[in-house]
Specification:
The protein contains 15 helices and ten strands. It starts with a helix and ends with a strand. The relative contact order is 0.14. It has 503 residues and is an alpha+beta fold. It has a domain of 320 residues: Cathepsin B, Chain A (Alpha-Beta Complex).
Length: 503
């Protein structure tokens, strides 16, 4: 029957419409709470650095749900009838009167209607007059009733759809607001934790300075760093990110503009660690790079800096030595040459934070340090320019680099500027004292052209996000952002190293 067919079809139409509205509302309700979609970019670290560079929040609070007020039309006063003057009527002539006479019309005769069968779904008026003509019966068919029922189903469906949409909208907005409040609570907890850790860090800055050591030259390559001596390179067509043909990620945060940025996948998922008083910065940077690549494979493992420091010092593996410091390349090479997984976990080969002037690598290591390998290095590559650095980060490769340090590097709360480094009264003394420090580069952010806090003409087009090894009290939860200008002034001779693959 038509009525049944319409009901089924109507239900389908309403269901499809509601599913479409569900998707639209879901996207609109979640968007305010996750401007940066990836988990790493919703972390307190990214949020805090984003505020330092762009001056706005990376995640914004959802707007209050709009209240729908009933529409009220304009007030209308009583309708005033116009005063009509009596019209003077001219008497009609005889010919005009005859022309106005209406012709006689024959009365309409109702047409007969014969149902096709006894099962036809029609309303018959039994009180209607019956005119016999053979065996046929005259019936009055009520076709308006079907239209009324049809319109009633549509109207009822629209009302239900609006109620369901309104109810769903309120539910999704409440969930979105709760998600934001939970995220904000976690961020505030992290900030409080960093604040306590920073107080402890500032008390121990002298220990970190004393732990710095000369980073040995990389004997495996003759390549040298070439970041350029002038910041003009940051603004030519090849290097300026605003001129890039394709932008991997762009911000959609109000006030920040469309600035290119990238964070290595899983870079913020690895817990921050502290090398304490030993000269093991390269080992910590190398191990963190390995842990990030493991995390990208869905594996979480705290590995041993103690073993990697020993592995990075081939001259100190059999006999104790007194020279401090190391570089990551010998460690990567040693792991590559191993026939099996060689790098153990922190649990199997724990880090000893106590320095030993007569035995830097704490050799010989315990048996579990050498017998319970969890992972190994398969490949790495050299990085000698800003273009290569950006390309490596875009591929989600963490990059190890060595720098001499300035006072503002220690004291930073986010962005390390060349201007602050040069203006330091003790800059030259600190640069000479800070013989070398290895850190891990895990991303970059383009500096806004209209930034009020960062002079782009001096600092360059970007700052590069780093993970240090001095605990959560350094910078923002152990991280900071180095401008190109500062990097050019402080980069060491060794080329940077990108870790590209594990065994």
């Amino acid at each position: 029957m038509y009525e049944n067919h319409f009901n089924i079809r109507g239900e389908k139409v309403l269901r499809h419409k509601f599913n479409f509205l569900f998707i639209l509302l879901l996207l609109s309700s979640l968007a305010p709470c996750s401007v940066i979609a990836a988990t790493d970019k919703e972390s307190p670290i990214f949020h805090s650095l984003w505020q330092e560079v762009y001056g706005v929040a990376a995640v914004v609070e959802p707007e209050p749900e709009p209240k729908i007020e009933p529409k009220v039309g304009p007030k209308v006063g009583p309708k005033l009838e116009p005063k009509l003057e009596p019209k003077k009527i001219r008497p009609k002539s005889k010919s005009e009167a005859e022309a106005d006479t209406e012709p006689e019309v024959e009365p309409e005769v109702e047409k007969e209607f014969i149902p096709d069968s006894d099962e036809a779904d029609y309303d018959i008026d039994e009180d209607a007059p019956v005119i016999k003509k053979g065996n046929a019966k005259k019936v009055t068919v009520s076709i308006g009733k079907k239209n009324q029922e049809k319109e009633s189903v549509i109207a009822k469906g629209k009302v239900n759809e609006k109620d369901e949409y309104r109810s769903f909208s309120q539910e999704m907005h409440a969930k979105s607001m709760n998600s934001y409040k939970e995220w904000k609570s976690e961020v505030n907890k992290s900030y409080d934790q960093w604040k306590k850790a920073r107080n402890d860090f500032l008390k121990r800055v002298k220990e970190y300075k004393n732990g710095l050591a000369t980073i040995p030259l990389d004997s495996k390559t003759k390549l040298q760093m070439n970041l350029g001596s002038s910041l003009e390179k940051s603004f030519n067509k090849k290097t300026d990110p605003s001129n890039a043909k394709s932008k991997k990620q762009q911000s959609s945060v109000p006030g920040s503009g469309d600035y290119k940025f990238h964070i290595v996948d899983k870079a913020f998922s690895v817990p921050m660690r502290d090398q304490k008083r030993r000269s093991t910065c390269s080992a910590f940077a190398g191990i963190r790079a390995i842990e990030i690549l493991l995390a990208q494979q869905g594996k979480s493992e705290a590995l041993s800096p103690e073993y990697f420091y020993w592995l990075s010092r081939p001259d100190c593996q059999k006999n104790p030595c007194t020279v401090r410091g190391s570089w990551v390349v010998p460690g990567f090479e040693g792991s590559k040459d191993s026939s099996s997984f060689d790098i153990p976990s922190e649990q199997d080969c724990p880090y000893d934070e106590t320095p030993s002037d007569s035995n830097e690598t704490h050799t010989p290591l315990s048996g579990t340090c050498k017998s319970k390998g969890k992972v190994g290095v398969a490949a790495y590559s050299y990085v000698t320019s800003l273009e290569e650095l950006v390309a490596a980060l875009d591929k989600n490769y963490p990059v190890i680099a060595g720098f001499s340090l300035s006072e503002n590097f220690y004291q930073t709360e986010g962005v390390v500027l060349a201007a602050e480094s040069a203006s330091s009264a003790s800059a030259s003394k600190l640069d000479q004292h800070a013989k070398g420090h290895a850190i891990l580069i895990v991303g970059y952010m383009e500096i806004p052209r209209n930034s009020e806090s960062i002079e782009r003409s001096r600092e360059g087009a970007r700052c590069f996000v780093i993970a240090n090894s001095w605990g959560e009290g350094y910078g923002k939860g152990g991280h900071a952002c180095l401008t190109e200008g500062w990097m050019r002034a402080h980069i060491l001779q060794n080329p940077m190293v990108a870790l590209t693959a594990l065994k």
